[in-house]
Amino acid sequence: MMGGARRLLDQETLKPRSVGTTLRRLGSYFRPYWAVLLVVLVLLVISTWTQVITPLLIGQAIDCFLSPAARIVAADPGGGLENSELAQSASAVNCWYAELPPDFTTDDLLAGLLRLVATLALIFVMGSAVVGLMFFLMTWAGQHVLRRLQVEVFELLQRLSIAYYTKNESGDLMSRITNDMSTIEQAMSFALIQVVSGVVLLVWIAYKMLTLNWVYGLISLAVLPFMALTTIWFSNQARRAFRRTRTEIGNVNAELEEGISGVREVQAFSREDANIESFRQSNAANRDANIRAVAYTSALAPTLEALGYVALAIVAGVGGIMMLRGMSMGGAAISLGLIITYIGYAQRFNQPIQQISILWTNIQNAIAGGERIFDLLDEVPEIQEKEDAITMPPIIGHITFDDVWVEYNPGEPVL
Questions:
Q1: Residue 407 pairs with which residues in a beta bridge?
Q2: Would you state the pLDDT for residue 129?
Q3: In this structure, are residues 254 and 172 in contact, taking their beta carbons and an 8 Å threshold?
Q4: I need a surface site. Which of 73, 240, 283, 405 has the fewest CB within 10 A?
Q5: Long-range interactions of 210-217: CB distance < 8 A, separation 24+
Q6: DSSP letters of 1-64?
Q7: Cα–Cα–Cα angle for 38, 39, 42, nearest 5°?
Q8: 79 DSSP assignment
């Protein structure tokens, strides 16, 4: 019953696809809301700045206030003053947040530390407010775009000829309107802005790590190529798998729609067992497609997490060895605050990569759904108004059919 349509959908998934074309078409729907997107972009930059500046300020808290306090404690006759002086010299070189007087006391250090903590708290509050407003505006624009897409699809379905509906199951069309639209909605509301924000954060953090100490930065980013290759490979596999799931869920919906709407005919011709078996096959194919897609997404996050731990070990190990031996790196001293800053950057560097890897599957799913929706929107109704068509006069109820016939396929009249 469903063999011909399933082969047609299988051919659809094998056609060459262009992600760029699909994204450009989706982007064209956002043009009326460019002002909102501009505000979202500004908020995104502010939000990213709050995430970049916090590890730097935490490192400054150590170099400017905690390391000098440790030196005062170590100045006790029983303490090892030589090592504390070495740490203090590196900390003094890397401290730019505050200038301490030569005769500073613990009270001076405590006051400066409290001011820095208050600044960090203010940055955290501002970052939370900015992120909330950013997601609200993006969701607002996305809902307007989604409404326009739904209206265009519905209007097209009203204009398509009857022949189109003889070749395409209404269940698959319903899947495009509901399931595919739902995946696009999820991407517009959350996944898209998270992925863009993650990319900006990665670039900004990499720039900051290289400008603080380019040698230490390169060592800290040594794992990045492996993360990129892992993400690209898993993403490509997930995109193919999710495209298949969109096809299979369309088949399941088509089976359900035909089985329910035609239940009288099914029972009249005793086809219950055949329909049940056909639905079992469609449902099994949908299950297998989803399991394959989930397998790729489940393997990606742990792989990136393991690489992230390797990056943290490199940052802490190399930095700690250089600091304890009093060695410079890239012409600059290595202090405890600098190591803590780079550890914070490494953690923030790994988090967006993991988020992108997880949310990118949502984006891939949405792109596959967008391709199916645009394929539908590209359908041209067979019956077109001629340019010189005569306007129909008012109909008074007397109609004569002369040389009229109906055919779904050319050359095969049915009436």
A1: 413
A2: 95
A3: yes
A4: 405
A5: 212/338, 212/341, 212/342, 213/329, 213/330, 213/332, 213/334, 213/338, 214/330, 215/329, 215/330, 216/318, 216/319, 216/329, 216/330, 216/334, 216/338, 216/342, 217/342
A6: --HHHHHHHHHHHHS---HHHHHHHHHHTTGGGHHHHHHHHHHHHHHHHHHHHHHHHHHHHIII
A7: 90
A8: S
What gap in Å lies between CA 12 and CA 248, rounded to an integer?
Answer: 12
Give CA 361 to chain center in angstroms.
Answer: 7
Three-state DSSP class for residue 270: coil
- Give burial (CB, 10 Å; 0-12/13-18/19+) of 391: exposed
Confidence class of residue 206 from pLDDT cuts 50, 70 and 90? very high
* Residue that has been written with the tokens 């299979």 in this structure: 248
DSSP SS3 for 332: strand
Radius of gyration for the alpha carbons in the chain, expressed in angstroms and rounded: 31
- The reported pLDDT for the residue numbered 283 is 85
State residue 274's pLDDT score: 82
Distance CA(47)–CA(49), nearest Å, equals: 5
Query: Which tokens go with 306?
Result: 């393991």
Q: Is 117 exposed, middle or buried (0-12, 13-18, 19+ CB in 10 A)?
A: middle
CB 201 within 8 Å of CB 48: yes
Q: Check if the beta carbon of residue 209 is closer than 8 Å to that of residue 216.
A: yes
Percent pLDDT > 90 in the chain is 19
For residue 108, give the 3-state DSSP assignment: helix
d(CA 104, CA 112): 11
Instruction: Assign 190 to helix, strand or coil.
Output: helix
- Lowest average pLDDT, out of 20-24, 45-49, 117-121, 336-340, goes to 20-24
d(CA 22, CA 20) in angstroms, rounded, equals 5
Cα separation, 295 vs 35, whole angstroms: 40
> Which pLDDT score is estimated for 71?
63
Helices (H), 325-387: 336-377
Distance of CA 7 to the CA centre of its chain: 31
Give yes or no for residue 48 having a pLDDT over 90.
yes
* 196-230 burial code (b ≥16 CB/10 A, e <16): bbbebbbebbbebbbebbeebbebbbebbeebeeb
User: C-alpha 312: how far from its chain's center?
Assistant: 24
81-130 pLDDT tens trace: 444 444 446 777 788 888 777 777 788 888 889 999 999 999 999 999 99
pLDDT of 13 higher than 60: no
* CA angle (224, 230, 233) in 5-degree steps: 140
